[in-house]
Amino acid sequence: MQVSETAQPAPDRGASASVLLRADKENVALLTLHRPEARNALSDALIDALSRELDAIAADRSIRAVIVASAPSSCFSSGHDLKEISARRSDPDRGRAYFEDLLGRCAAMMQKIVRLPQPVIAAVESLATAAGCQLVASCDLAVAGEDARFCTPGVHIGLFCSTPMVALSRNVAPKHAMEMLLTGETIAAADALRMGLVNRVVPAGHAVDAARRLAAVIASKSAPVLAVGKRAFYEQIEMGLEDAYAHASRVMAENMLARDAEEGIGAFLEKRTPRWE
To answer: What is the CATH code of the structural domain delimited by 223-269?
Structure first.
């Protein structure tokens, strides 16, 4: 069961909030995609609800880590809602303006995950396909139940998974990414682990529990330091080697001057538990 017993519609986010549930526990926010009848497809409403909730979490100092899960369904997320997309083909421009806006809003939401100060963990129990696979790849970490599967199947319906490609190609080796994109074939959780798309594979039904344990380890660290490190990780990975070292050196020197670094080093030398700010 992936939906927490205490999960509630994301508060004060408008009529679309019921497509996304949020439950906070011990400094960890659990966001649950809640469209099981539509295979948790990323509808307009769900993309917007995720975007708004990520903004709220970014400003919430009580939250130290985030888990993205889904309501029980055949899919963690089946990607974009093809019924919504097809309905716009009758627009005067055959849907062009809507498609560009949709993909832009989805890309912005995925980038909010990357830019969020708190680490984000995907907890996947079933099939993550197309933009659903993109969502998993956009998260900082991923835990998969052993029955989870992943694919970018756009080529089967004449639609190359170009936007999922961006996140996927930044997680796995180029030839693995190309094989998934060119064939559209589904890979098992064990293969996703081998390829680097997920961090851990656990018994089916235990992905959220395992993600919570991982989140608890992360939440025990200094939140400001984790935020600095996460941002620096994504900044340096796009740089050349020399520029990456120069940037990381500047970040680390600044970090050394922070209160939590002084406290952490002092605690280590004094053989005591650090008291984070």
So the answer is: 1.10.12.10
